[in-house]
């Protein structure tokens, strides 16, 4: 959850509208970004080290990259920055922040395309890192739900006798968190709230009820905090449930054709204008000789 982004869904929608209103419809913006969030997570799940295929991208890198992508397009339009380019920059930046060492050569090895395409992508990622960091307002540390999730599972094992096997929840929890990261919930709610929503949903799917654990154990000493928490968990579950009604891929393909035809050439590394602009920006950083 990012404090400066806002505390409710209306604020997120306002930011997206402001970023896109001069260029593109809400459908093109939100639908395209959601599709690229899916592609980001698919790319990360299929990522392999070219020298050792056993080395895979950790889930916390994927989560941070997803967070970056969603935040980037709160302030920028898909017509100015192609989501494909931003997606790969966010993933590579997340690898650095989460200390998952991967060279740019090894990274683009996983990017589909010819050797020239891979070289171009590598150059684009390295040239876009600083701008992406600036657009994220240098807030690069992302608090994730995985640590509070482990804490909840340990607490359930230690203090709640109504649940026979807390580890049995893990599969349903992971599925819930995967869907959760296709929504705005990580921008709106605290990691502990996301973790509790995942655990209670997983328990319900297995025919278990954790209400007494939440009320009698977890919040026994601070019942005044229970109502806001329950409200937050319900809203998180509604966001996740709505994931299935996302824009279909055929619609996204049509929208992407419009995007490719109208993309700002100053932010498209496949155009000459982009590289001229890069050179001009570099020259502007040089200190003139007295």
Primary descriptors:
single chain; 290 residues; mainly alpha; Cyclin A, domain 1; 2 domains; 2 strands; 65% helix; elongated; cell cycle; Cyclin/Ssn8
Number of domains: 2
Strand order of the largest sheet: 1-2
Q: How far is the N terminus from the C terminus?
A: 48 Å
Radius of gyration: 21 Å
Instruction: Report the count of strand segments.
Output: 2
Domain Cyclin-like: 38-127
GO molecular function, one term: cyclin-dependent protein serine/threonine kinase regulator activity
Protein name: Cyclin-like domain-containing protein
InterPro entries: Cyclin-like_dom (IPR013763), Cyclin-like_sf (IPR036915), Cyclin/Ssn8 (IPR043198), Cyclin_C_2 (IPR031658), Cyclin_N (IPR006671)
Question: Short summary of the structure?
Answer:
The chain is mainly α and 290 residues long. It has helices at 9-20, 26-46, 59-75, 83-97, 104-109, 115-135, 146-159, 170-180, 185-188, 191-205, 211-218, 226-241, 249-262, 272-285; strands at residues 48-49, 52-56. It is elongated.
